[in-house]
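[Discussion] Sanity-checking designs against the backbone

I'm trying to build intuition for which residues belong where. Below is a structure token string of 430 positions. I'd appreciate it if someone posts a full sequence so I can compare it with mine line by line.
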């Protein structure tokens, strides 16, 4: 597999330094991508560079994931309008461990293969490096003129907000350049990859390697991912789409990919899956013939949900989706765990009722009018029950006087009431 060709047809190359492809064809090469450890989970904005590492390993090369423990304490000025908060070492270590577990779903860290992936943290080689040693050994090799010419620096200095650029952030490209030099000397790393906003920082590293060692190193960047409508990729109303289920449930994760536009699905399926060119071409034909069936979105959502979570989580997400958007049964509803149930019915009106009110049993008509205002009156509920328009836990309510008790609870704490086809209400038992 030719790595550069693979990225090229996937639309994942923005800039590539001359000689990069020749180097990769010559021998197994090590390349690294830097990952910001400011949270204990990756979000889908990180996935582009992670997929680059995945394809790199598939092509027989050796991927290195660098967690920026040292640089994360400073903050990269690229594409940022202000400085970030600094993290302590304990938080960084926790974040690093969490991120490695997520990366292990994409990369092989544990095999005996010569191209097994490696995780490193630049804090390990920066923490004992004194400021005087650093500016003497590294700072003298790059001129201020060279550093000022970088787009990330120029953009901040010309910003209308007058935020300016601290010396701390100005030094960021020197630190990132040193990372590349360190990995070049200690891991034989010849290539750094990242988003197109990183080009300036990456080429600082290749220049530092050239000036300090006379050696040659390479750079490759991918485009920053955008949405067809111009909106920011990976952001929803509730914020980032995370890989950790504590922050974004597998159901919500699946729904994000399922609901992308046709244009975005055609682009994302190349970037975020390992499907072959032939498989994707076949899906594109299916999409053109029956766009309403959304084969691209469905396959994209499946591939990436299984990769990040599991096949079981994917199947649960599909079943959960059918509850709101298809013909599901009470059996499907009973299978949902609490996390998925609450994700599916997020935003649905909720009522709290006391457990002792259900322990002895209560008539449905009293429960759904007096204890929870699903219906404004018993008369209105009676009419809808008679016409078959009321369901509890996806089962039609045949008698308004049916007794409801705790044996009917989902996850021992929920009841799902449905008025008509689309009006759902969640009753939470305390």
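Best answer:
Here's mine. Compare freely.
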């Amino acid at each position: 597999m030719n790595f550069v060709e693979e990225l090229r047809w996937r639309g994942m190359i923005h800039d590539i330094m001359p000689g990069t492809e020749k180097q990769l064809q010559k021998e197994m090469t090590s390349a690294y991508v830097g990952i910001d450890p400011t949270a204990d989970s990756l979000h889908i904005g990180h996935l582009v560079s992670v997929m680059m590492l995945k394809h790199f390993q598939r092509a027989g090369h050796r991927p290195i994931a660098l967690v920026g423990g040292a640089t994360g304490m400073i903050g990269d000025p690229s594409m940022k309008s202000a400085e970030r908060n600094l993290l302590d070492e304990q938080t960084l270590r926790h974040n690093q461990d969490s991120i490695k577990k997520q990366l292990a779903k994409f990369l092989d860290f544990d095999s005996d293969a010569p191209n097994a992936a490696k995780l490193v943290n630049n804090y390990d080689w920066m923490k004992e490096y004194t400021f005087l040693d650093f500016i003497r050994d590294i700072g003298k090799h790059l001129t201020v003129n060279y550093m000022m010419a970088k787009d990330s620096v120029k953009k901040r200095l010309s910003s209308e907000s007058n935020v300016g650029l601290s010396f701390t952030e100005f030094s960021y490209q020197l630190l990132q350049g040193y990372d590349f030099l360190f990995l070049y000397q200690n891991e034989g790393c010849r290539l750094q990859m990242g988003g197109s906003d990183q080009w300036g920082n990456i080429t600082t590293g290749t220049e530092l390697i050239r000036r300090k060692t006379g050696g040659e190193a390479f750079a490759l960047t991918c485009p920053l991912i955008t949405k067809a409508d111009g909106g920011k990729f990976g952001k929803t109303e509730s914020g980032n789409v995370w890989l950790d289920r504590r922050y974004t449930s597998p159901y919500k994760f699946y729904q994000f990919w399922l609901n992308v536009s046709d244009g975005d699905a055609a682009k994302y399926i190349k970037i975020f899956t390992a499907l072959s060119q032939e498989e994707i071409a076949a899906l594109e034909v299916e999409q053109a013939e029956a766009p309403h069936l959304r084969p691209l979105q469905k396959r994209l959502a499946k591939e990436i949900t299984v990769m990040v979570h599991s096949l079981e989580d994917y199947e649960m997400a599909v079943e959960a989706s059918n509850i709101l958007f298809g013909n599901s049964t009470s059996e499907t509803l009973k299978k949902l765990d609490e996390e998925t149930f609450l994700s599916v019915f997020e935003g649905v009106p909720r009522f709290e009722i006391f457990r002792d009110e259900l322990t002895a049993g209560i008539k449905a008509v009293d429960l759904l009018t007096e204890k929870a205002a699903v219906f404004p009156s018993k008369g209105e509920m009676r009419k809808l029950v008679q016409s078959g328009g009321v369901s509890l836990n996806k089962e039609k309510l045949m008698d308004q006087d049916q007794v409801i008790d705790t044996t009917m609870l989902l996850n021992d704490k929920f009841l799902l009431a449905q008025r008509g086809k689309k009006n759902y209400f969640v009753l939470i038992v305390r």
